[in-house]
Amino acid sequence: MHYRTDEPLPFERDPFSAIVSPRPIAWISTRGRDGRENLAPYSFFNAVAYDPPQIVVASVGRKPDREQGKDTLSLARESGVFCVNIAGYEDREALNQSSAPYPQATDEAALLGLATAPCHAIECSRLLHAPASLECRLLNVIELEGPSNFLMLARVEVVHLRDECLTPEGRFDVCRYRPLTRLGYQDFASIDQVFTMKRPKA
């Protein structure tokens, strides 16, 4: 079968996010000019360049207590920075709870009892227990087609790695924390098995 995206769906639920999956999750911490902290997960997220390292995060939808978008987008625009924390399987309940539409003054990390630490290069907190955290400086916000769709492009300035996620050879081992990934509908998955294939030569 097939369907056109500009016509009524032939399904009760849109399968688009199930098709483009699994997707990594950016558990983003931000801080406003007033010092208030925010934490929220975003699954339209990925790395897009190595040198310098750059990432993209899409903010879709909006909150009634924000002029545009959600808390993360507003605070990142205000401060020019944000921190992407990577979540493991053990974080699944807290990550899901942090996605609730709390009032903008809510500090989700404090509410959920998650320990934080200062970032090194940016004025923002990071999750202390995260397997990895990326301190990011916002480069651009692109307004996408459709209501309340925005793409944030950022440069990674500092990378934090949890020591027990590193092998003695210095390899970041994802199986040591089982990255949490987003599927479609209300589904998630975690990665606990990997395999290697060498890139072929022409």
TrEMBL record:
GO terms for molecular function: FMN binding; oxidoreductase activity, acting on the CH-NH group of donors, NAD or NADP as acceptor. Gene3D superfamilies: Electron Transport, Fmn-binding Protein, Chain A (2.30.110.10). It comes from the Bacteria. InterPro entries: Flavin_Rdtase-like_dom, Split_barrel_FMN-bd. Residues 20-174 form the Flavin reductase like domain. This is Flavin reductase family protein. It comes from Corticibacter populi. The lineage of its organism: Bacteria, Pseudomonadati, Pseudomonadota, Betaproteobacteria, Burkholderiales.
